[in-house]
Design brief:
Elements lengths: L2 H23 L10 E10 L4 E10 L7 E5 L4 E2 L7 E8 L5 E5 L5 E4 L3 H11 L4 E5 L7 E12 L1 E4 L4 E8 L5 E9 L3 E7 L4 E5 L2 E8 L5 E7 L10 E4 L3 H45 L20 H8 L8 H13 L3 E5 L6 E5 L7 H13 L4 E3 L1 H9 L2 H13 L8 H4 E2 L6 H20 L4 H23 L7 E2 L3 H15 L2 H6 L5 H13 L3 H10 L12 H7 L1 H4 L21 E2 L2 E4 L1
Parallel strand pairs: 1-12, 4-5, 10-17, 11-23
Antiparallel strand pairs: 1-2, 2-9, 3-8, 3-24, 5-9, 6-7, 6-8, 10-11, 11-16, 12-15, 13-16, 14-15, 18-19, 19-20, 21-22
Helix pairs in contact: 1-3, 1-11, 3-10, 3-11, 4-5, 4-14, 5-14, 6-8, 10-11, 14-15
Length: 594
Amino acid sequence: MKETNQLGIIVVACLLLAGLSIFFSFGTGLSFEPDLVADTYTAVLENDGTLTETYVYDVASAATYRMLFRTWDDTLAFEEQQSPYVEFIDVKAPADMVGYAIDSRGNSVVTGEGGEAQRPRIESLGEYNEMGIFRETRLDKGLYTAHYTVRIHPPLQYDDEYAHLNLKLAATHIPYRSVDITIPGEYVREIWVRPTSFETVMTDGAYHITGTAGEDILIEIEMLLDPAYMDVIDGFPEKTTAVGQKAETAALFYSIPALFSSLMLLLGRIGVIAAPLFLIAIFLRHGREKQTVVPEQISFVPDPAIPPWQVNLIFKGDAVDFDENGFYATILDLHRRGILRVTEHDDASGVDIQVVKTVSADAYEQRVINFVSNAGTGGVLDTRSFAAAANSGGANIASLNTSLSALTSEVDSSISGRYIEEGRGKIVPLFAAGLGIALFSFFLFFISPATAPLSVPAGILGLVMVVQGGIAAVFPTTLFGRWKEDYYAEKLRWDGFSAFLSDSAMIQRYSPADLSMWGEWLVYGTALGVGDKVEEAMQNLSIDIRETNMPHVHMMYAAFIPVARYTPPSSSGGVGGGGFGGGGGFGGGGAGGR
């Protein structure tokens, strides 16, 4: 495949990943909505602690829900309590539904026509600290409006300068498409709204807070108030030192991670878009090869002086990858040159490999010769012994498997440096940037879970950058590197030779009269991974491979299967609310359905 085509595949894949990840990073949990959401959530707080909430539930799946509710993390009570609590006042349901509330002890209140008759069913299905609306038959698709009225009796920290209230309106809940909260501003000195994406506007003496909240996004209002506020609300005051400083410090510990999370999210969005541009720039600067005209198919071995294992390493696939074809091609080449003698068994049960010469000037060839000598007896390796060794197991077959694995995967890859300038190192900055964004974002989430709407998408975008780099790394290292001197032309010649050997019609057209040429084609075709195509062409031309003084390639592969695929037996065993800052608010809970 041409390098420009390879680059095109990478760029398209990276752009698709960038588009999808950025799309989801702008989501708030509403991109693909569940079958129950709050179309609108309106909350109005009064100075005396009365809180009126209106939920418009949007049911998208018919015959699924019969109860729509809002829960509280803190105590919901019908009577006065001796510790912070939420006092039930009223619940209003649609005309054909029953309103209900269940306190922290399991006691219930029902409102609306037919409520008493439905009380046992409601108590059996509902949860403690829950207010909601109920219908005996499951709901149709549509909008359902519920009004909840409570009076909060929260914990209040105070000193001579400030009173402190942290009101958590939702923590675990369905998505809210639209949020509208009103907080009276008469006593408020400082206010912090979470999530920070909400817009806060002071109008007519009250704070109007609006926004959108995805599933389980913290909705919380933290305030420093005039101490006179404690005379207006029936709360549970607690004398505390440095209230203002503690509130500001807690808000800072929330806002700093949120600020950094926003920065990471921005960098992540920029990064996934910049990644394909970065790869294009690397290719244009370091990877683009000089134009060379080479025939698409070549009927001769480009350079017979190069050992087959080096052809496999340099010119088959990536220029730094070696595989088993190089090993089998080397055995065939050593046989062709009279260093080894390979004899097929008449019953096709394997081959005998005899060591004729024990020394080779080539280091890899010497390793192959040593393997044959050590695996055989008296300088002859009968590959039928592999099956027996594999069946019996033990150290012998394990040692053979280790040695063969090394021979089929490990060579002196430093010779690649003679031919190419390695390119994968040039995409490391993309990996590093993505990993840095991901790790730092997830660290921010760990120290401040309330930043999840920002830090989690940012972390995912960082991981997408890593994946983009991984896609580029899968392709040959020369895509972002370069072939030295005139070796790119030689690479194209070997590609042309491989294409020729893969084309049966072309082989038949240029069939050599010299049988020794078939042996050479068989050796280098095996190194390039197309030895079976050469054998197939010989068969089509009715050429007896034995006349070429070469063994069948497929016999070579089959002979080593018991060793190559041996897996040692596996061993088993083993060894056996109301505080300062984001998430610390009083109240909690949120809307849902069942």
